[in-house]
Amino acid sequence: MTLDLRRLRYVHAIAQQGSLTRAAETLGVAQPALSHHLAELEAYFGTPLFHRTPRGMVATDVGRILAAQASSILRSVEDAEAAVRHGVETLAGAVTLGLLNTVALSLAVPMFKRCSERYPNIRLSIWEGTSQTLVEAMQKQELDLAVNLSEASEGSARLLATERLVLAGHKDWETGTGDIPLREALSRPLILPPRDHIIRKLVEWAALQQDIRLDIRYELAGGWTLKSLVQAGLASTIIGRSAITPEDLAGVLTIRPIVSPALERRLVIVHSPVRAKAPAVRAVTALLRELVVERAGEATWTAVPVPDTEDEA
With a threshold of 0.85, does the pTM exceed it? Predict the structure, then answer.
């Protein structure tokens, strides 16, 4: 038996789908055949690659290593095929970009549009997620690059923009307008994400510095549902400015920038070390920075200029 591309695709599909049935459907092979190949691989390596659980297939430590390597190899094969088909002068291939949920509201649509216009042979995929799910996807080699928070990223990450945090509340009972001092914002009844969320950590640190006891009425991880609670008038929240859309402001939400001092979070670009130098990935990175600069301002973030000599890889 040899560890060929076909078997690498099998391992990658099982790890992604978490199910032999779904992996077989994705691959277009019979499930018994897929189970047979997996058994051969486990016998070849002398160790289980997946745990069989009632909820599906969960990769073992060895399985995660093999699945990550399989992802990297398969992407390199795609790059090679694209280069041969389209020539070295044409940017082509598959690129997977991870975006924070709130950032995706501002960047996902224009990224798809601009990439298809400028690089029609690049197949761009965008994953939305939280800071933690993006970290996990990058570790599994499922992403080529991602926009994440600096606090959740490794030292190789490069600063992309800084984003102000704002107090978001219901228009009917948020009587003030304009900037709001941090102490006043923290004194409001709040809806916040769970304790492992970056914004929650920033807010708790600020409250500690101001010697304020937070009044956290509800905890909620999902950004869309969190805004729904604010729209229902249950409490205010502290959130990144880019998470508030023009549609939100046209409805019942109002926002007030936090000052004295301001609360900010830093957005960074993180690259897969395996794919950072791929021409298609470098092209998508340049498009991303371009759009971030274009959309910078009070309604989104402050972009960080990149020197012409900077090498994104």
Answer: no
The phi, psi pair for 236, rounded to 5°, reads: -90, 175
Instruction: Reply yes or no on domain 5-68 having CATH 1.10.8.60.
Output: no
**Could you confirm whether domain 87-160+266-303 is CATH 3.40.190.10?**
yes
Q: What is the Cα–Cα distance from 12 to 6, expressed in whole angstroms?
A: 10
CA-to-CA distance for 191 and 168, rounded, in angstroms?
Answer: 10
Q: How, if at all, do strands 253-259 and 180-181 pair?
A: parallel
Q: What is the pLDDT of residues 23-57, one digit of tens each?
A: 999 899 999 999 999 999 999 899 999 998 888 89
Number of Cβ within 10 Å of residue 255's Cβ equals 21
Q: Are 151 and 195 in contact (CB under 8 A)?
A: no
| Fold of the CATH domain 163-265 | D-Maltodextrin-Binding Protein; domain 2 (3.40.190)
Q: Residue 41: how many CA atoms within 13 Å on its side-chain side?
A: 24
pLDDT band at 90 (very low <50, low <70, confident <90, very high): low
Using the Cα atoms of residue 103, residue 104, residue 110 and residue 112 in order, give the sign of their dihedral.
positive
Burial (Cβ within 10 Å: 0-12, 13-18, ≥19) of residue 141:
buried
Task: Report pLDDT digits (tens) over 134-165.
Answer: 988 888 888 999 999 988 776 678 999 999 99
Count CB-CB contacts under 10 A for residue 80.
11
Euclidean distance between CA atoms 67 and 61, whole angstroms: 10
Contact of 241 with 164, CB cutoff 8 Å = yes
